Amino acid sequence: MSVGIYAQLNGFDSQIIERHSIAGGICTAWFRKKYRFDYSIQWLVGTKEGAFHDTMCETGIIDDSTEIINAEIHNRNVAKDGTDLIIYTNLWKWEKYLLSISRKDWKAISRLCRDIRWASHLRPFDIAPAFRTPLHYFIAFFKCFPSLCMAALHKGQTYTEYIKSLKIKSPELEKKILNIYGEGNYSAYAFLLIMGWYFRKNAGYPIGGSLGVAERMQKRYESLGGKFLFKKNVEEIIIENNVAKGVRLSDGTIIDADYVVSAADGHTTLYNLLKGKYRSSKLDKVYASWKLFTSMVQVSFGIDKDLKTDFNIQVILAEGEKIGSTTLAHNYRILNYNFDPTMAPEGKSCIIIRYDSPFQLWEKMTDEEYKEEKKKIEEDALKILEKHYPGSTEFVEVCDVATPKTTIRYTGAWKGSYEGFIPSPKNVVDQLDQKIPNLDHFYLAGQWLFPGGGIPPSVHSGKWAIQLICRDEGKKFVSK
Q1: Nearest CA to 218 among 205, 208, 227?
Q2: Within a 10 A sphere around the Cβ of 141, how many other Cβ atoms?
Q3: How many Å apart are CA 175 and CA 161, to the nearest integer?
Q4: Which of 159, 303, 349, 397 supports an S-S bond with 181, CB 3.0-4.6 Å?
Q5: Contact 353, 298 (CB under 8 A)
Q6: pLDDT tens figures, 398-419
Q7: What does the pLDDT look like over 364-397, one tens digit per residue?
Q8: Residues 94 and 155 in one domain
């Protein structure tokens, strides 16, 4: 939708072809018996300031009616023995809290919090890489110097390596902090950025969640004259003499175009829509080696009771435990949306349980196996709900199970990955080109261009795509 909005602002006629019956892709939610079950947003970078914020205002993600909530608590991590670690969004408060656990680790805690503060100075660029001059980088160097120092020091470290480098003396505190991300390949710098954005209150939650964001963008796009084509699937991008000329839909319809921008996942675009004809060694290496966010199962409950909590997001460490056929690698998450009145009728609650479930487990399931798996997941999720909210299961009015196959059915995302590539020490500062070699009048947009994915860089990439098209057409780009 970002591509469409900026296309309309710059005098182009555009049409968005959407696989689903509503706009938004993975940024979505659905209704069951007056309950709204959100699939995407827990927090949104750029809700206060910066280039991401400007783009969100231009595209309607944030408008005068948008209420932003800045939670006091990011989440609560609960270990198997019942001990917990609370992550506060106020860094001064979190520092004090960590010191209450281990006063002797004041040096390590001070360094951790200092690194987060320094990382918070990062300012994303507002223009596509092709337009950046040495002056842009010179200015960014001075504005973002502390964050760039953090990148230089820690971009090559995993989260675990970084925490180990702090030399925390208390085994209890070190274990609690390590458990935030577990023994994975997650980038230390990505962690510092996330915490830094929270610290600056620049990663809030918009009331109305994902569907509210998508609806505001749709309204903005249509108000500018843009048009949607819903419940249609692109089968092929039409190419003539290495120039994109339009698309062919699965029903055989051909739509001509002067330019084509694909916001589908990169793998589908390169290897299906373009038939693998336009590739490069770099792109092949990326899709062969960069690790994806594991596909996800979401179990949503509509409950006829007001379930209050001090912790709207809880991460329950449960390595080795099973939900359905999935053996958990690290945790499951419980989200209580009682802070957002749009998710459930007054006096009722919307509770969501999420856990990672490898796509390979789902890929070859028969219809009967799939039906039985969803039934078992619901049974196990009800037990989890009862464990954390005793007495709540008798008030459950609706239960909805969304799986990786659900994600693929509505969005087509490769392997059901909801956020593309995991930011690792090797790719955290990388960005894939929006232009594919040897193919003209065609650009890529969306979260698969950026390790870590998410809405803010996706929306930015839509803006950049139109900046590039305006350059091709010899037009001056406008953003308002």
Answers
A1: 227
A2: 10
A3: 13
A4: 159
A5: yes
A6: 999 999 999 999 999 999 999 9
A7: 999 999 999 999 999 999 999 999 999 999 999 9
A8: yes
Collapsing DSSP to helix, strand or coil, 78 comes out as strand
The three-state secondary structure class of 68 is strand
Per-residue CA distances from 151 to 154, 156, 429 (Å): 5, 8, 8
- Whole-number Å distance between alpha carbons of 417 and 266: 12
Cα–Cα dist 402/301, whole Å: 12
Here the tokens at position 10 are 């710059």
Max avg pLDDT among 272-281, 351-360, 426-435? 351-360
Give the bridge partners for 229, in sequence order. Answer: 17
- Pick the last residue of a domain from 153, 182, 200: 200
What string of DSSP letters covers 233-273?
-EEEEEEETTEEEEEEETTS-EEE-S-EEE-S-HHHIIIII
Amino acid letter at 460? H
Do 170 and 85 share a domain, yes or no? yes
Q: Any idea of the CA torsion for 123, 126, 132, 138, to the nearest 10 degrees?
A: -30
Is the separation of the CB atoms in 461 and 445 below 8 Å? Answer: yes
Q: What's the structural domain count of the chain?
A: 3
